[in-house]
Amino acid sequence: MIRCQKEYLLVSFGLLYQKKSQRIVQAVEACPNRWTHHVAVQGMQEVDGELLGWIDEAYRFSAVK
Questions:
Q1: Which helix (H) or strand (E) holds 58?
Q2: How many domains in the chain?
Q3: 16-30 tens-digit pLDDT
Q4: Cα-Cα-Cα-Cα dihedral of 22, 12, 55, 8, to 10°?
Q5: Mean pLDDT score of the chain, rounded to an integer?
Q6: Is the residue at 36 inside a domain?
Q7: Which of 4, 9, 59, 65 could form a disulfide with 41 if both were Cys (CB 3.0 to 4.6 A apart)?
Q8: Is 14 inside any structural domain?
Q9: Phi, psi values for residue 43, rounded to 5°
């Protein structure tokens, strides 16, 4: 479990599968084959290529679902 500072931004995105990463605070399968992932971002340095790649993957998934 990641402990968050008092101030953070919660980034949520959906994918066809459950992505595994220590950065993901929680992932839930709200509907069959639709996983919602939550990442707590505590500073601009955490908005990196990995997170942006996940968001891009989620965008592509939303276009075909």
A1: helix 49-64
A2: 1
A3: 999 999 999 999 998
A4: -70
A5: 92
A6: yes
A7: 9
A8: yes
A9: -175, 160
